[in-house]
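Supplementary Note 3. Input sequence used for the single-chain structure prediction.
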Amino acid sequence: MFCWPLFIAPGPAPAAHTADAPLIFLVTMPVLLAVVLAEMSSGGIDPRALAMLGVLSAVNAGLRPLGAGTAGIETVFFLLVLAGRVFGPGFGFVLGATSLFASGLLTAGVGPWLPFQMIASGWIGLGAGLLPRRVTGRAEIAMLAAYGVLVAYVFGFLMNLWFWPFTAGADTQLSYEAGAPVLENLHRFAVFTLVTSTFGWDTGRAVTNLVALVALGPAVLTVLRRAARRAAFEAPVAFTPPNKPHKPHKPHKPHEEHEEHTHAPHPKSAGIDTGDGADGHRPAAARNRPG
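The predicted structure, written as discrete structure tokens, is reproduced below.
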């Protein structure tokens, strides 16, 4: 989508593709809805997590006007990186897209660039959620800061690429040349973005991300992780059916009862004298003995 100038020849006029933005926007919104529904159905986002998504989108939309338009300072990306890190890639993608959409409405920044900004920001949040989980402590902050610097330049690169054919004109060494080989147009674009954006706006964005992530990252991560423990952002717990109940074992008799049963006298056998004097119960030898 961003790389269309390298592969698709434009129409008769450079503005022939300016009408593509509304179509991309119409495609982006169902994708966001599908991601949210998929996360909710899998248990990754519950109603409390959805409320957290709305709160962070509003906060990010409010942060962006503080620096947008001033030497490339962008205050929207550091919170996006931290939230994606804590809440996961799906949450990060939706947060990136909704944050830029809300800030566009708040600052009257709705235009053909908005859907491209939404998708690029969504990728930033998604990438933050895919970073290695085993890294913690200062190493984690260093990793997030390096990632913030990298995505600052990647965001500028992508945003320059989609509108480059409409901005550079038609008769300069930096202009897009329809029908030229891909490598030639890529070389022209690289020179264009280095001269117009990389050493200016993109570097300002990278420095902002670096300073914000190093200075505020530990505290914000602590707050976000505390909020994550109160909402469901992990896979749902699987409940297995209980095992068949075992038959209860009969209780053992007390030790005294066991001893009493062991030492009880055996009953007299038939024909043995029991001491009652009855001849019928006397042995035969005793009955035949002379008195």
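Residues 12-16, 256-262, 268-288 have pLDDT under 50 and may be disordered. The radius of gyration is 40 Å.
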